[in-house]
Amino acid sequence: MNRLTADAVLRPGRTGWEFWKVPNNSDPICEAFIFPKSLGPVRHLILAVPTRSLLAVPVWISSQGDPIELADLELSSRHLLKKNAEVHGIPILEKDGRSLILALSSIDDDRAQDYYSKAKTFEFPARLWDPDAEDVIVWGEWGEICFAFYREKKCVYFTCTGEIAIGSALCGIITRTAMRLLSEGVLLRMPARLRLIGDFSFEDRTSLRDGLQVDVEHSPVAPPPFLLGSYTNPAPPSAKLEMEKRTRWQKFLFFAVGGIAFYALVLLLISGDLLVRRIQFSKLASELHGIEETSSGAHKLVTEWKEFRAAVDPAAFAIDQLAAVATEIPGEQVRLTQYSFDSGRFTIAGEAADVTQAYDFFERIKKAPLLQDYDWTSRQPQLVGRNKVRFEMEGLRPDAKTSEE
After folding, report:
1. What's the predicted TM-score (pTM) here?
2. Residues in CB range of 377: below 8 A, 6 or more apart
3. H or E segment and range at residue 242
4. Angle made by CA atoms 207, 213, 218, in degrees to the nearest 5
5. Tens-level pLDDT at each residue, the chain (405 residues)
6. Which of 5, 61, 386, 399 is the most buried (most CB within 10 A)?
7. CB neighbourhood size of 111 (10 A)
8. CA proximity to 183, closest of 60, 90, 95, 55
9. Alpha-helical regions (H) of 159-236
10. Is residue 195 within 8 Å of residue 215, measured between CB atoms?
11. Count helices and strands in the chain by DSSP H and E runs
């Protein structure tokens, strides 16, 4: 059974549809009903399927059995199913390891088809009456007489008789039905109390009382729908198709909204990331602008220093550099054969008695105070004669111009 909170009920009455609104925390209110468009604001509509389009058969089954499968089997075996009918198995009670179910079949009804697409769920009218202490309830739908039997306030059987008046024929149908249900164990005793709902005459009430030998209670005005909060949902074939269509549409909307929300979230994240990156870019651009101003000043200072260095820096004078190199000669066995200086590039060549003296001279040059601005490299000393090796070394100042420059 489906559980939901209804806000309206559409129930067949004696002369037409009854439209009941269900306000929050208050009793249902009957309102004038005109056409299906009036249901536009209704979100949760319960549609009571006309009794004439329903067939109910109470059946005892095993507690482990499937109610719908066994209901289908029971109705099919009795050749009671009409073409395209929907089968439902409604649990009623359990006793002695058995379950009593109400096997229902529902067919489309031309009086209700306009409202199938509006309904949230469905119910059979007999279940919307409050049986209280009554065993039988009799009411009218579009001029036809219907009745239902109850056990422990649960509907165990209902039908539309097709009779248009209360009389001996109706009493005979109710009596025979009660005896059959009693023999099947569906009822525990013959009915003793009956409620008659609707605008029926005193003669109608008397006919039922005398014909059935029961106490009759009359409700001239149909009471509000009795809402339990759980519903059997015996939807006819077309109504079931409408429900499936609505379910598919709701799923589509759910995934569509989910997809749009996910896409929006991705766009939001991307936009946020772009915004953060733009802020970072602006910050870096500002820092770069500040660095460019500082760099420009530093570059100007370096340029000015290069222009004045040749005039004020001793390390830039070739004679001073030669003096610094000559000071580092380790002995008379080492002599210079070549010395050149051009635009920060310092080249020295010479001869020594052995390789050790050549390397010693190279190390001394690297440590000379006036020559420490240079990055020194040396080639492998070459043996050119007995007790004579030739060496060559080169020093580059950081501001030295390359050949490409």
Report:
1. 0.63
2. 393, 394, 395, 396
3. helix 237-312
4. 55
5. 555 678 899 999 999 999 999 888 778 888 876 677 777 788 889 999 999 999 999 999 998 889 999 999 999 998 898 888 999 999 999 998 899 999 999 999 999 998 998 898 999 999 999 998 899 999 999 999 999 999 999 999 999 999 999 999 999 999 999 999 999 999 999 999 999 999 999 999 999 999 999 999 999 999 999 988 888 999 999 988 887 777 776 777 777 788 888 888 888 888 888 888 889 888 888 888 778 777 777 777 766 666 655 555 655 666 777 777 878 787 777 888 888 877 678 788 888 888 888 888 888 888 887 777 788 888 888 888 778 889 898 888 877 665 554
6. 61
7. 14
8. 60
9. 168-183, 202-212
10. no
11. 6, 20
> Which tokens go with 92?
């009623």
Residue from 154, 124, 132, 156 nearest 58 by CA: 156
**Token digits for 263?**
């896409």
* 21/28 Cα distance (integer angstroms): 5
Instruction: Dihedral sign for Cα 264, 269, 270, 275, please.
Output: positive
Determine how β-strand 17-21 pairs with β-strand 29-31: antiparallel
Residue 374's CB is within 10 A of a number of other CB atoms, namely 22
Q: Please give the distance of CA 167 from its chain centroid, rounded to a whole number.
A: 60
Phi and psi (nearest 5°) for 382? Answer: -110, 135
Beta-bridge partner residues of 4:
none
Tokens 């569509």 found at: 256
DSSP string, 316-364: G-HHHHHHHHHHT--STT-EEEEEEEETTEEEEEEEESSHHHHHHHHHH
The SS3 call for residue 385 is strand
Helix (H, G, I), strand (E, B) or coil at 377: strand
Q: Residue 47 burial by CB count (10 A; 0-12/13-18/19+): exposed, middle or buried?
A: buried
DSSP reduced 3-state for 125:
helix
Q: Are 340 and 393 in contact (CB under 8 A)?
A: no
**DSSP SS3 for 180:** helix
